[in-house]
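SAMPLE LOG
Freezer: B-3
Tube label: C17
Construct: single chain, 165 aa
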Amino acid sequence: MVHPIDAADFESLNVKINGRPQSATWAPVSMKTIRVDEGRALRETDCPWLGSHALVLRRSAVEAMNEVLRRNGEVLPLRCTTDELFVFNPTNLVDCLDEDASDVVRFSNGRIMWIRRHVFRTDRLFDIDAFKIPNLRVSPIYVTDSFVGRWTEVGLTGIRWGRVA
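STRUCTURE (predicted):
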């Protein structure tokens, strides 16, 4: 796992890794690697976990996935004294969630709180392997079978992929 050194940077990463380009104004966030959680040693992976909204990668993952990452977004450096880390910001913000066909839970103001069952308008995802949706304030990163296939093919570790649609 990785966490920002300054707890306020959890929210700044929520805001910055939003599907819109950030490289022109990006200032690397200071991170720390968490090697023990609840007394249990954690295995080192190519993708230390921060959250589904921000894919943190070691250099090995950036190099192995470089083509697909660059085609679908930007790789931004993080500051860490113990590891060379980057965060992937997919710059495909695609309004592809079919809200009527999906099972969504809403706040009282009508905004989506979470999505129990996703239904995507796949015609809006042509030639896209990683994206975020504008329907959530902090969207997870969604990836296609092609992205997962490449990840698996090159033998990267750290993510247990799950199908959402």
